[in-house]
Every structure is written in structure tokens, then in C-alpha cells.
Design a protein that fits this description.
The complex is a heterodimer of chains A (216) and B (221). Chain A is an alpha+beta fold and 216 residues long. Chain A folds into 2 domains: 39 residues; 171 residues, no CATH class. Chain A has 7 helices and 6 strands. In chain A, a hairpin with a 2-residue loop joins strand 3 and strand 4. In chain A, helix 1 packs antiparallel against helix 6, helix 3 crosses helix 4 and helix 3 packs across helix 6. Chain B starts with a helix and ends with a helix. Chain B is elongated, with a radius of gyration of 21 Å. Chain B has one domain. Chain B is of the alpha+beta class. Helices cover 57% and strands 13% of the residues of chain B. The longest helix of chain B has 30 residues. Chain B contains 8 helices and 7 strands; from the N terminus they run H-E-E-E-E-H-E-E-H-H-H-H-E-H-H. The mean pLDDT of chain B is 85. The chains are: A alpha+beta (216), B alpha+beta (221).
Chain lengths: 216, 221
């Protein structure tokens, strides 16, 4: 894929982030909705990296600490994310085990890998393949919220299973950490600006000398 | 009177443009500049560089958004009045609805989780639905509600945090987790919430962002 069409930034036009109206950047604010005009999201890569580092730090306690503790007839069992998946897998509930595996482990991990790749490509350390990476970004933004499913499960179980001495469920710190991971990765994905990838590609085409920094 | 009638009629017309032009549209993904031409209803414009959707003309957009959002709001009342799930275990029946679930989470020492639950499943959908009604309802009559521009700005920000469908998947998972330990039944609240999910999806996808802003701009001028 190549950059061959006229791009808005090249003629000093900016599409408003809020309402989509294209106006000259020199206006400063969008004439329609009053939002500040930017050519690109401000400090996009720095913000994405910051949110992602925070999310990665929280990802460890999210997996190590229990999501919830279930006390059944005086016997308490703690459930971590992986423990919950193993519970369903052993019980033969494969589809539900796969749903939790995807939502709680695969999506957050793939999201972090994808965002790292996107940030590296946007800063010129990897080849910006905007066609492929654009799609990866789109999927990343779309899938992020589904990781929340495990948090909601904890919430529902805690609220529902309060049967005195017979059975109670209490939320663990792992749930809080994991909720933090989901929210932070969502912010990370929102902060990234996919147009940076196309800017890189354009720079490469105009100035092939910079291409020796980049994998072929 | 005649003027009001013609304003209403104009709002039923597909996607008006502010007089003047030509209008431009920049792709959100690759920043390629396109001339934003008028589209027939039900057609989407795609970026010629990366193929992402630029804008689309939804049929009967204003009516659709208002109707779906109203339905969602009314059903939200049902969701909160009726139990969501009922569980029978050891001779004790517990019922759950959204607010009581959040309250239990707070009582159990997890106020942040309770807050997140209420925020993502109750506050955000309510804010989205009422915001859409506030902006699109008056537009049906060719008018702009006071502060509609500010509300419309906030609508974009709230949209990703509406997690009804994720919550419903969570309900299914917890049901499977519990079915060996207790007898769990869906309540009316659950079914109402499932319909709210469909209504919210209909409302959000009912109108294109550019169309909503163009209509606001035309109605204001």
C-alpha cells in the first residue's frame, strides 16, 4: 500500500476529533463544535505507552491475586483468573472456558502486544504497514471492552451468593487490579493515533534514505 | 405555524447540508482528504486509501434514534424495578438487581468495583440514551435544544463505556458457574436488559456522527 492521495494535514486542514468537520488548522478551534483542532492526537505515542506501562504493571497482581474468595460450608476457595478457566475446563464446560480464556487472558495480552507493535511502527522502529496495522488497531479498540466480563462475573456472584453460613463470595484484590488493566488498556487504545502510521509511510516514500532504519 | 411545519418537514428529509460547500471529509485512520458528497439513504462512503467508513447516510435516522433511545429509557425503569436473577440455595431465596448488586459490592469492601458496575451498566447507558433523545428529539422538529452542542460532544466520549452486552455475557457465565451449587432463574429484569441492549445498539448505530452534527448546524442557522 502506498500514500498517493491528498492528505488533509498536507494542506493545513484538520478533521475535528469531536464532530468530524474539516477546517483549516489556523482557526485553532472547530467553527462548528468549538473543540480544539489538532492535526494528530496530541502526544499520542507517549500517552499510549504510559497507559500501557501502567496496565502491564497491574496485569501481574491481576493474575496472581484472587479474583474472588468463595466460602462454602466453612471451606474457603480462592479463584484466580486461570483457576476459573481451569474450573470450567475440568468440568467439561469447554465453550465457557474458551470465552473466559479469550476475554481475560488473550484479549489483554494481544492488546498489549498490538499496542507495542503500533507504537514501535509509529516511531519508525518497525516498518509501518498501515494497511495491516490499521486493521489491528481497529480490532484492538473494538475488543477491549469484552475483557470486562470477568469483573462483571465477580460482581454478580458477590451480590447473589450471600447465603449466610452456607455460602458467601467476597471480591478479591485481583478483580480490582484486572478492572484497572481493562480500563487502562482502553485508554491506551483511545490515545493512539493510527494516522501516525500513514505519516511514517509517507515520510519513507518521500525520503528513501530514512528507510535503512527500518526492516525491509 | 407554516414555518414550524416546514421545519419539521425538512427534518424528515435525508441529511441536509449547510448551504455553501464544497465540503470535505478526512479519514480518521489515514487522514486522506475526500470531497464529502451527498449520499443516497442506506449508503456508506469509504476511504479510497484505506477503506475505512467515512460517513454513512442512515435511513430515517432521527426517528430511529429517538424511538430506540426512548424504548431503552422506558425499559431501564423495568430493569431496575424487577429482579434480574433469582437464586434458591439452602432454602433461602436471593434476588439480584443492578443497584442492589452494586450496594453489596460496596458493603463487601469493594466500592470501586461497585462504582464500575453502576457506571458501565447503568449510568453510561442512561446518559447515552437521554443525551441522544435530548439532541435528536428537538432536531425532529427542526430545533436545537439549549446546550445540545455540549451534549453532542459528550455523546462521543461516553459511547465506548456502554458495556451492557459485556454484562449480559457475564450474567451467562456466572449462571453456569452457579448451576451446580444452586437453582438460578432469570427474572423479568434480565429479559428487559437484553432488549435494552438491542435498543441501545439500534440507537447508537441509528445516526452517523457527521449527519448529527450537520443537522445541528443546519437547524441552528
Amino acid at each position: 500500500m502506498s500514500v498517493s492521495h491528498q492528505r488533509a494535514a498536507a494542506v493545513g486542514l484538520a478533521g475535528c476529533h469531536t464532530c468530524g468537520k474539516v477546517s483549516p488548522l489556523s482557526l485553532g478551534r472547530c467553527p462548528r463544535c468549538g473543540s480544539r483542532l489538532h492535526l494528530r492526537k496530541s502526544r499520542s505515542v507517549e500517552r499510549t505507552v504510559a497507559f500501557m506501562l501502567a496496565a502491564t504493571a497491574l496485569y501481574i497482581p491481576a493474575n496472581v491475586l484472587p479474583m474472588m474468595t468463595m466460602v462454602e460450608l466453612g471451606e474457603s476457595t480462592s479463584n484466580t483468573i486461570t483457576g476459573g478457566i481451569a474450573y470450567f475446563w475440568k468440568g467439561g464446560a469447554y465453550p465457557i472456558a474458551l470465552v473466559i480464556l479469550t476475554a481475560s487472558i488473550l484479549i489483554p495480552l494481544l492488546k498489549m502486544v498490538a499496542l507495542t507493535w503500533l507504537c514501535l511502527a509509529a516511531t519508525g522502529k518497525l516498518h509501518p504497514s498501515p494497511g495491516l496495522l490499521g486493521k489491528i488497531y481497529w480490532v484492538t479498540e473494538l475488543m477491549g471492552r469484552w475483557s470486562m466480563v470477568d469483573i462483571f462475573v465477580v460482581g454478580i456472584l458477590v451480590a447473589l451468593v450471600q447465603v449466610g453460613n452456607y455460602m458467601t463470595v467476597t471480591p478479591g484484590l485481583g478483580a480490582l487490579a484486572f478492572a484497572g488493566v481493562v480500563v487502562l488498556t482502553m485508554f491506551a487504545a483511545m490515545s493512539f493515533d493510527p494516522r501516525l502510521l500513514w505519516d511514517r509511510l509517507e515520510a519513507l516514500q518521500n525520503d528513501p534514505a530514512t528507510s535503512n532504519h527500518v526492516d525491509p | 405555524m407554516k414555518n414550524a411545519f416546514s421545519r419539521t418537514l425538512r427534518s424528515l428529509h435525508p441529511w441536509p447540508k449547510v448551504p455553501g460547500g464544497p465540503y470535505w471529509s478526512a479519514c480518521h485512520f489515514c487522514d486522506t482528504l475526500h470531497e464529502a458528497t451527498a449520499l443516497p439513504e442506506g449508503v456508506a462512503a469509504r476511504c479510497r486509501c484505506c477503506g475505512a467508513v467515512l460517513y454513512q447516510n442512515r435511513p430515517a435516522s432521527l426517528v430511529r434514534v429517538t424511538a430506540f433511545s426512548l424504548a431503552a429509557l422506558i425499559l431501564m425503569v423495568v430493569v431496575n424495578l424487577f429482579p434480574f436473577l433469582t437464586m434458591d440455595a439452602a432454602g433461602i431465596r436471593t434476588t439480584l438487581n443492578l443497584v442492589s448488586a452494586a450496594k453489596t459490592l460496596v458493603d463487601q469492601g469493594s466500592p470501586l468495583l461497585g462504582f464500575a458496575l453502576v457506571l458501565f451498566t447503568l449510568v453510561t447507558p442512561l446518559a447515552l440514551a437521554s443525551g441522544l433523545i435530548y439532541v435528536c428529539g428537538p432536531l425532529l422538529f427542526g430545533r436545537v435544544a439549549p446546550g445540545a452542542f455540549v451534549v453532542a460532544k459528550w455523546l462521543n466520549q461516553t459511547e465506548p463505556w456502554n458495556m451492557i452486552e459485556v454484562f449480559l455475557l457475564g450474567v451467562l457465565v456466572s449462571l453456569l458457574k452457579l448451576n451446580k451449587l444452586a437453582d438460578v432463574h432469570f427474572g423479568i429484569g434480565f429479559w428487559a436488559f437484553a432488549v435494552v441492549m438491542v435498543c441501545m445498539a439500534g440507537a447508537i448505530s441509528g445516526i452517523d456522527r457527521d449527519e448529527m452534527w450537520d443537522r445541528l448546524e443546519v437547524a441552528k442557522s
